[in-house]
Specification:
The chain has 122 residues and is an all-alpha fold. The protein has one domain (3-55, 64-121). Helices cover 74% and strands 0% of the residues. It has helices spanning 3-38, 68-121. α1 (3-38) runs antiparallel to α2 (68-121). The radius of gyration is 27 Å and the shape is rod-shaped.
Length: 122
C-alpha cells in the first residue's frame, strides 16, 4: 500500500469515527434529556434552601423585618427563577445535542460512503 493511500485511508476512517462519535453523543444527550423531562422529572431539580433577602435598612439606626408578603414574594421569585434556569439548561442541552447530530451525520456518511466506494473499486 502506498504511503498516500495509507494516509488517505487513515483520514477517512478517522473522520468517519469522529462523525459517528458525534452522532452517538448527540443521540445519548437527546435520550437523556427526554428521560429527565418525561420519566425522571426530579433528576434536574436543584434543592435551594430558603434564604431570605437582607433586611432593608430604613435608617442607620433602625432596621425593619421583611413582611410575610415580602418573604412570600421573594420565595415566588426564587422558584420562578429556578424554573427559568431549568428550561434554559434543557434548551441549551437540546441545541448542542442537535448540533452534534446535524454535524456528525453528514461527516460520518460522506467519509463512510467514500470508504465503501474505495473498497468496491479494489
Amino acid at each position: 500500500m502506498e504511503r498516500k493511500e495509507l494516509i488517505r485511508t487513515i483520514y477517512l476512517y478517522l473522520f468517519s469515527l469522529v462523525g459517528l462519535v458525534l452522532v452517538v453523543i448527540g443521540l445519548v444527550r437527546i435520550v437523556d434529556l427526554g428521560l429527565k423531562a418525561l420519566i425522571f422529572t426530579k433528576a434536574d431539580e436543584v434543592i435551594i434552601y430558603p434564604s431570605y433577602p437582607m433586611k432593608p435598612v430604613i435608617s442607620e439606626t433602625a432596621e425593619r423585618q421583611p413582611t410575610p408578603e415580602e418573604l412570600a414574594e421573594y420565595d415566588r421569585k426564587q422558584a420562578e427563577s429556578q424554573r427559568t434556569q431549568e428550561a434554559s439548561n434543557r434548551a441549551r442541552t437540546a441545541s448542542s445535542a442537535l448540533a452534534m447530530i446535524i454535524i456528525g451525520t453528514p461527516l460520518f456518511l460522506y467519509h463512510w460512503k467514500t470508504i465503501q466506494k474505495d473498497k468496491k473499486e479494489v
